[in-house]
TrEMBL record:
SUPFAM superfamilies: Immunoglobulin. This is Si:dkey-238d18.5. PROSITE patterns: IG_LIKE (PS50835). The lineage of its organism: Eukaryota, Metazoa, Chordata, Craniata, Vertebrata. Its main location: membrane. Belongs to the immunoglobulin superfamily. SIGLEC (sialic acid binding Ig-like lectin) family. It comes from Cyprinus carpio. Keywords: Cell adhesion, Disulfide bond, Lectin, Membrane, Signal, Transmembrane, Transmembrane helix. Residues 149-235 form the Ig-like domain. It is a single-pass membrane protein.
Amino acid sequence: YSQALNFDAEMAFWSCLLSLFLWLRVSLTAGEWSAEMPKSVVGLSGSCVVIPCTFSYPANGKTYTEFTGVWYKGYYELTVYHTDTSKISDAFQGRTSLTGDLRQNDCSLKISSLSSSDTGPFMFRIEIKDLDKFTYDQNKTSVTVNETPEIPVVSVEEEVTSVKPVTATCAVFHSCPSDLPRVSWNHNGTHSSLSQPQNPGHLRLTLYTLTFTPSREDHNKHLSCSAEYKVKTVTNYKTLKVKCNNPPANSYQWFSSNGILLGNKHTHRLERVSRHTEAMSCTAINTEGKNSSGPRKINVLCK
């Protein structure tokens, strides 16, 4: 009888110990240091890109309110973003921001004025007052920078007949959700747009539509759209090349804001750009007619 009691007591001890182990394991798993971000994102040169990011930490039922978020390029090589902006590396000064709230576990990073030098892996670090600091170095996002955007694609689903309204769609790829491309058509009509869900590692897609009623004059006419992306911010007194992103054309013309012809090539070269540089426009000319971008001012960062 005594042996049976000892056996039951021993079994109860190990059962309690096992229960305690399982409880500790669940508690640690529920509040561990972890982060979610895509393995890669793609951005357009001169535009912006957003790295979606969420993180968790072992709060253990406590509430913390003071967070310091830090993003690095490579393995601590450059400080891409810091809550204390004075600690951001010169190469990223004025170009980065968080799109979410660290108190809501959102560490998403926005990088503006992308260039080819921005390619590479990026990682996030959190510093929580009265708790701890942690670098999520097992979760890195690789950024790829495309130099030129893809040519917009126009499609019309239904058969086009006169007197019957028709809707055309212009598919435009971009990388900056806060600054969508401006689309223009070579035909009058009613405009609308709809952004599509983003696939990780791919450019974003926005569909622009044009609804109009064809007439006899539209017979055999070429319907096209052009996308204008925000011009990148450049440092004053630098040389800048700008490209006309209108539909494929036989010739091009560049004009200053007062109508002076500046050039006639697809790409126009500007010397010693400054904040005094005038707005300009490009016009694409083909057998169907011509299309102008309208005057655009270049954003210049003075240093």
